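Retro notes (design track)

What went well: tokenization of the new backbones is finally stable.
What didn't: we kept losing track of which sequence belonged to which structure.
Fix going forward: every design gets posted as structure first, then sequence, in one message. First example under the new rule, 97 residues:
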């Protein structure tokens, strides 16, 4: 089964040019740090899951946030990322305003 990843973009994601991937959804993507192809229509670019340390839940609860850089997102955009059934390193992204 090819479960898509869906997310509504926050103002911070739009400003910084990335979309977050929730920790419990990482299994849908390649390993953190490995590259994969992300297509949007006829455009294809290399992408990578990156992370940064955060203490948004307090200093005694440090953790990681995972993200993919993607320019041109706006607050409120709804994105859907799906893995290709033929190629495990190929994903498509669609963005609905």
């Amino acid at each position: 089964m090819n479960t898509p990843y869906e997310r509504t973009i926050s103002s911070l994601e739009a400003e910084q040019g990335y979309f977050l991937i929730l920790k419990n959804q990482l299994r849908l993507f390649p390993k953190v740090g490995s590259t994969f192809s992300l297509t949007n229509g006829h455009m294809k670019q290399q992408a990578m899951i990156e992370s940064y340390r955060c203490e948004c839940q307090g200093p005694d609860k440090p953790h990681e946030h995972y993200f993919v850089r993607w320019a041109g997102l706006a607050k409120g955009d709804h994105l859907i990322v799906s893995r290709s059934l033929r190629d495990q390193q190929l994903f498509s992204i669609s963005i609905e305003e």
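Added context from the reviewer: The longest strand covers residues 63-69.
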